[in-house]
Request: fold
Amino acid sequence: MRKSLLITFLISVIAFSFTTKQEYQKIHIIPQPESVDLKKGYFTFNTETRLFLPEEFLKDLATYMTEKIINDAGINVSVAKCDHSVSKNMILFEKTDDSTFGNEGYQLEILSDKIVAKANTYAGIFNAFQSLRQLIPANARQFPGKSVRIPCLVIKDHPRFEWRGLMLDHSRHFQPKEFVLKQIDVISSYKVNKFHWHLTDDQGWRIEIKRYPNLTTKGAWRADRTGIHWWSREFAKPGEPMPIGGFYSQEDIKQIVEYARIRNVEIIPEIDLPGHSKALKAAYPHLSCRQDLLFEVSTGGRSPNNTICAGRETTYEFIDGVIAEIAELFPSKYIHVGGDECNKNDWTVCPECNKRLKENHLENFEELQSYFITRINSLVTQRGKTMIGWDEIMSGKGTPGAIIMAWRRNRYSPEVDAPRAGYQTIQASYTESYINNHQGPAYLEPEAPRGIIPLRKVYDYEPIPKVLTEEEAGRIMGTQVCLWGEFTPNPGICELMLYPRVLANAEVGWTRPLLKDWKRFQYAVEENFIRLERDKVNFSRSTYNPMITFTADTVQKIAVVQIVPDSDIHDLFYTVNGTDPTTKSPKYKAQFTAGLNTVVKAAIFNKKGLLLGNIVTQKIEIIKK
Ligand code: ACM
Ligand code: ZN
Reply:
């Protein structure tokens, strides 16, 4: 019995991979759906095609869908509520009651005379539409008004995880409202459904709180250190002008939240406490342990004394006021309160913090941190919300009932410890999902931290650690990529860091591991490059920049050179004589030896001979430290 089950399983895996291999040249949807059954024939989408929606979704989706179809296909369709007298040349979205679809799943059937999409929910209908959009040829808009052919097929689909997220940090560098709206629009095309918004940190408080105006009149602005390295910036001097910054008014927030709601994106605000609070302390110095010091918003990386007092009751009263307004503004059931990298130096010498420690029989300042976070947790739950915190909130006595965002790795293992301890957990791995790191050879990248997280590394990430039991694994809510803002001074650089890595994580969050396929994904990314370009998104092509590494033998004066491409669906050519590689140069197949001081150059070309990224250069030399 067991053997026959195994055989059936193996046959279906083989059959499945056979279909995908055949189909992946044709059907490029990111994230890869659960099943795609390609049929013969095409649906022809033209100016006569009519689109029908359930009446309850008309108000939210009619304009959105019309605009997207003009944008994607150059076709102006009429959108109306379901009309059962029409049966041909239509796209029908139907709300059903089929439990197999779940909250976000759908079925999309393309027949030669009509398209029928079914789902239980708004989210499912929205997701079906996103898959349909990606079936429209990426260059269709170049021929406006011309009919578009969509292959006949049946897609049945639902996500692996409920949390498929992106975090943006707009404290370190404020970005305009229009930028935020644009990113929500782009990520929602890939069924990313959570936007975690890091709104406060040492370098700026970015959200208007009506009862505390100083947070944005003072806390949103800092002294200008443009052009000086982030980690070497001098502190602001007393009386210095504070021209750098900005904030989102409550009207802005409402507009952004509504825009996101239409796009099935939930916005989770983060107010980072009790550390990372220099801007908060600059605005309201009474929240500090050190009443003898005056604070300014940090100008860059160095932010000592950035923790607020956990001893005084006024701290908790103040935070309750912030949470009250945040809870009103954001319909999400979650509020993220940070809790990371809490520097406790001020606490150890603060009489109020020490008093709090003693009165509550706390063993140490780690336990004062869990006391603080537990108090904040109850403020959050009193407002009917669930608290999320970075994994440091597990320290001390932990914070039962909170959700852990597991970011640390190497010396720490919150990705395992949190679900084992019974916490609902969101993976935000700093080794795989921190997309503020470079994505190719560093010298060709914009300034960033030193790590390299190429597209494939994001794609290959598996959010459920193997060692977890099924029950523990069930506590993993999903995964997100995080773009920290230290080195993203403007929208163009932000987008360069975001795309295409956001697409890789979209698939990590949606697609079951068995269906993931790096090669197929790369073809799909290339097709989506055309859409991103059409939509004026500044994506990165670093996946085409191979890494050249070597191990040198200083005695023999020789090195073993390896060229590691991220993108591996094209051809990699190299030279060792200082000239630029062309398609006539040697094709890279395996590691080779080269003498010291050799200049190795490598580049990826497509089958048409087009250079796809940069020519990467690496001199084989020993750099003495
Ligand atoms: C973090 O990276 N400090 C959450
Ligand atoms: Zn204190």
